[in-house]
Amino acid sequence: MPNLPIELMSISFGLSAILCVLIFVWFERASTASRKRTDTSAVQASHSKPTARIGGLAIVLALGTVVGLYQNAMSWHISTIAFVSALPVFGVGLAEDLGYLASPRKRLLAAAVSGAVFISLMGQWVPHTGIPGLDIALQWSPFAMMFSLFLAVGISHAFNLIDGLNGLSGSTALAAALALAAIAHQAGLAEHHDLLLMLAAAILGFLVFNFPFGKIFLGDAGAYVVGHFLVWISVSILWNASNVTPLAMLLIFFWPVADTLLAISRRLSLGKPIAQPDRLHFHQLVMRGVEIILLGRRKRRIANPLASLLTMPFIFAPMVAGVLLSDDHSNAAIACVAFAVIFTTTYKTGIWIAPKLRRSACPKPADTSNTEQRLKDHRALMLLRDPIK
Question: Is 58 inside a domain boundary?
C-alpha cells in the first residue's frame, strides 16, 4: 500500500479545509449573543475582530476520519491509540473554546488523563534522557511514567501558550510533525511516519484559513490535542528507536518549551501567578516592534502575520538541527545550549530596546487606545530589565 499515506493525506487536508470553511461561515452568521467566546478584550489578544476559535475541531474530525480509514487497512496500532487517548483533553479544550470556561488546572488535568490513557494502552513512556542520574531513576517504571506525564502536559500546554499570532502555533506544529516524520522515517517506523504526515496534512488544511489573516483560530482544543499527538508520538519514537537521542526531540520542541519556561520565570520575577496571562511573550514583543518601527498600531491586521514570519526562523532552525543530529547526542547537546543562548539573548535585547522605541515613537492621537495596559506592559518591561526596582 505505498500510496495509502498520500491518499489519506489528501483526504486529511481537504476535510480539514472544508470543515474550517463551514466553521467560519457558521460563526459569521451566528448572532453576537450566541458567541460565548470572542477574546478581543483579553490581555494577550493580538486581534481586534471576534473570530471562531474552534479550528481544533476541524483538525480532530479530519484526523479521526483518516485514522479510521487507516485502521481498516492495518491492525490496531499507534494511530488509533493516539487518537483515542487525545479525546479527554480535546473535550475539555473544546468546552473552553465554546465558552464553557475550563480553568487552566482542569485543562492540565485533562492533558494528564490523556497521557495516562496513552501509557496504559501503548505501554510506552520516556525510556531515557541521556542524563546519567536521571536515567537511573527512569529505570523505575512508576517514576518514568510520572516524569513522562509531566513533560507531556507541559509541552501540550506550551503549544497553547504560543497560540498568539496568526499561523504561529499551527506552523510550529506543522514543522514539528514533519521533523518527527523525518526522524521516524530514518528509524524505519512506518506507522509513526504515516500518522505524522496525516496530522501535518490536517494542520495544513487549517493553516490555509489561519494564516495570514486569521479567519479561524486553533483554540485550546486544537493546541492541546496537537501538542498531545506530537509529544506522545515522539515518546513512542524514543521507545522504539534506541539510536535517536532525546535531545533531538528537545530541539524539535525547543520553541514552545523555551517560551513556556521564559513565561514562568518572567511571571515569578514580577510576583505574578504563573497562570496569569500577559503580553510579554517573544512573539508579542516582535509584533509590537513591528507596529512601533514599521506600521503603527492601526495596521495590526498586517503586523500580526508579519510578526509570525519574522519569528518562524527562530522556530524552524532548532527543528532542522534536531533532524540532522537525531543520532548525535553530543552535538545535539551543543545545539541545545547554543539555541538557548540565542533565544535568551534575543529576548533580553528586545526587552532592553522596547522602552527606548516606545519613547522615541510619536503616536497619533487616534493611536492612544488601551493606554492603561500599555503602561502596565512598560512597567513590566522595566522590572524585567531591573527586577530590584
Answer: yes
In a domain, 386, yes or no: no
Query: What pLDDT was estimated at residue 382?
Result: 52
On the question of a cis peptide bond just before residue 387, with omega within 30 degrees of 0, the verdict is no
Q: What is the pLDDT of residues 322-335, one digit of tens each?
A: 999 999 999 999 99
Spatial distance between the Cα atoms of 91 and 152, rounded to a whole number of angstroms: 18
C-alpha cell at position 163: 497560540
Residue 156 within any structural domain of the chain = yes
| Structural domains in the chain (count) | 1
**What residues make up the domain containing 308?**
4-350
Is the pLDDT at 23 greater than 60? The verdict is yes
pLDDT in tens, 81-100: 999 999 999 999 999 998 88
Distances (CA, A) of 200 to 82, 145, 221: 15, 27, 16
**What count of other Cβ atoms lies within 10 Å of the Cβ of residue 253?**
26
Residue 26, CB half-sphere, CA atoms under 13 Å: how many? 13
**Terminal CA-CA length for the chain:** 65
| Coil/strand/helix, residue 216 | strand
